[in-house]
Amino acid sequence: MIRNGRGAAGGAEQPGPGGRRAVRVWCDGCYDMVHYGHSNQLRQARAMGDYLIVGVHTDDDITLTVDGRDTYEEVKQAGRYRECKRTQGVSTTDLVGRMLLVTKAHHSSQEMSSEYREYADSFGKCPGGRNPWTGVSQFLQTSQKIIQFASGKEPQPGETVIYVAGAFDLFHIGHVDFLEKVHRLADRPYIIAGLHFDQEVNRYKGKNYPIMNLHERTLSVLACRYVSEVVIGAPYAVTAELLSHFKVDLVCHGKTEIIPDRDGSDPYQEPKRRGIFRQIDSGSNLTTDLIVQRIITNRLEYEARNQKKEAKELAFLEAARQHAAQPLGERDGDF
Questions:
Q1: Are 198 and 108 in contact (CB under 8 A)?
Q2: With helix as H, strand as E and coil as C, how does the chain read?
Q3: Segment 84-120, tens digit of pLDDT
C-alpha cells in the first residue's frame, strides 16, 4: 500500500473530529488515463469521511463478478454503499476518440465536426445499445466546477511564488513529478501554473493537440495538490508584466524543448535576464506524445474491450430493471 504524503506503510491514522473514530472511505476503479472526472470522484469520496483509501483495479474489468453479479452487492446490502455524482462531459472513451480521429473539434473555439459527432454516437457502442456510464457527452465549463477544484488561497507573506507554464495536456504522472520537484524548491512554495490557449498549443505542438481543451486542462491542473493557482489562457512569453503582476520569485520549465515564440524570440528571455529561471528534470520519461502513441497502437484491443465491458454493464442494468419491476413477493433477492 502507498500512503499519499505519508511515505510507505506506517504512521498512525488520525482520529476524526471530536476524537471520534475516523470514517474510512473505500473508492476503487481502473483510473486509466486519469482525468478531472476521476479527480472529482475522489474529491467527493474524500468529503464523505476522514480517510480515503483508493483501490486501483488490474487490467481485468471487475465491474461484475464472473457470474454476472454486481461486485458491490454485499456492501449495498449492508447499507454502506454510496455513489459519487458523475462529472458530465469527460470520459476516457471520449479522450481516446480525440487521439484516434486526429481532429480539432474538441478545441474551445471549434464547432463539433460531423466526423466527431458520428464518433461520439458510435465509438465503443455495443450492438445492444448505449451504456450511460461510458457514453460521450459534451463538456460544459461552469464557475462552480472551477470553485470545486480551486484552493481559493492567495500568496501569503514569506511564500515563494513559482511560475510554470505549458499545455499540461492529458495531465499525467510526468506532469505531477515535475510539479513535485518544483514544489520542493522552496520551504513555502506557491505554484502558479499558466495554461496556454488551445490555438497556441496547436501552434507549437501541431497535429490535433491539445487533446484536452483549455477548460478541461484547467480542472485537471487545479486538482493537483502542488498547484495553488492557474492562469487560464496564459501568454506564451513570460513577460515583465506577468512577473510583476503575480510577484513571481522563480520561473521553472521542464527538460522538454523550448519552442521559440511567433517572432522567433525566447519566451523565457525575461526571467533568464533576471536570473530567476530554472530548468527542472522531472525524472519521468512519460509524455503526452507517448500516451497518444500507446492508444493508437492498441486501438483495436481498446475498442473490443470497451464494447465487451459495455455489453456486460447493459445486461446488468436490464437485469436490475426487471428485478425492480417484479412484485415484492416474487423477488428472490438475486439477479
A1: yes
A2: CCECCCECCCCCCCCCHHHCCCCEEEEEECCCCCCHHHHHHHHHHHHCCCEEEEEECCCCCCCECCCCCECCHHHHHCCCCCCCCCCCCCCHHHHHHHHHHCCCCCCCCCCCCHHHHHHHHHCCCECCECCCCCCCCCCCCCHHHHHHHCCCCCCCCCCEEEEEEECCCCCCHHHHHHHHHHHCCCCCEEEEEEECCHHHHHHHHCCCCCCCCHHHHHHHHHCCCCCCEEEECCCCCCCHHHHHHCCCCEEEECCCCCCCCCCCCCCCHHHHHHCCEEECCCCCCCCHHHHHHHHHHCHHHHHHHHHHHHHHHHHHHHHHHHHHHCCHHHCCCCC
A3: 887 776 777 777 777 777 666 667 655 545 554 554 4
Q: What is the DSSP letter of 333?
A: S
d(CA 87, CA 89): 7
Q: Which residue reads 504512521 in cell numbers?
A: 11
Cell 488515463, located at residue: 33
Contact by Cβ (8 Å): 77, 85: no
The three cell numbers of residue 303 are 475498442
Model confidence, pTM: 0.72
Residue 134 — very low, low, confident or very high, per pLDDT cuts 50/70/90?
very low
Give residue 101's identity as a one-letter amino acid code: L
Query: Please, are residues 227 and 191 in contact by the beta-carbon 8 Å criterion?
Result: yes
76: left (phi over 0), alpha (psi -120 to 50) or beta: alpha
Cβ atoms 73, 46 nearer than 8 A: no
| 130 CB neighbour count, 10 Å cutoff | 15
pLDDT in tens, 191-249: 999 999 999 999 999 988 999 999 889 989 998 999 999 999 999 999 999 999 999 99
Instruction: Tell me how far apart the alpha carbons of residues 281 and 256 are, in angstroms, rounded to a whole number.
Output: 9
Q: Is residue 150 a contact partner of residue 222, using CB atoms and an 8 Å limit?
A: yes
